[in-house]
Design goal:
With 130 residues, the protein is mainly α. 85% of the residues lie in helices and 0% in strands. α2 runs antiparallel to α3 (51-70), α2 (24-47) packs antiparallel against α5 (104-122) and α4 runs antiparallel to α5 (104-122).
């Protein structure tokens, strides 16, 4: 096993352990962080003209966003959940368009939207986190 392989295994083990111990609130934070990481890597790949990595990372970010979208409880969340649903759908669409057009600004737009949602999520008081 080479050093890169060993590091990847170590990182995966750490993430898996964190997921197993995480409450639902923390899992959402981790998903948002994961989407941001993938968008950042896609942006670098786009700038370096690495089509394969760009496409893979954008696809992965879309999958995460769709997961966030499908985790919404629209009955309990009311209008906020409906608005988030629309926003997640918009972000997934913008990522697909960014991939097709090699548009870094669209990636930045989606990353900024995720950061804004995440900052609100991060501000939820501890006694309300499940």
């Amino acid at each position: 096993m080479n050093m890169n392989s060993a590091m990847n295994e170590y990182k995966n083990a750490g993430v898996n352990a964190e997921v197993m111990d995480a409450n639902p609130h923390r899992l959402i934070q981790m998903l948002m962080d994961g989407a941001l990481d993938r968008i950042a890597i896609a942006k670098g790949a786009m700038q370096q003209k690495d089509v394969a990595v760009k496409g893979e990372r954008i696809s992965s970010a879309i999958t995460i966003i769709e997961g966030l979208r499908h985790s919404l409880n629209k009955d309990a969340g009311g209008q906020i959940a409906m608005n988030l649903d629309d926003l997640y759908e918009y972000m997934a669409s913008r990522l697909m368009e960014a991939n097709l057009k090699d548009d870094v600004e669209m990636l930045d737009e989606v990353a900024d939207l995720i950061r804004k949602i995440k900052s609100g999520w991060d501000e939820i008081p501890a006694n309300l986190k499940q």
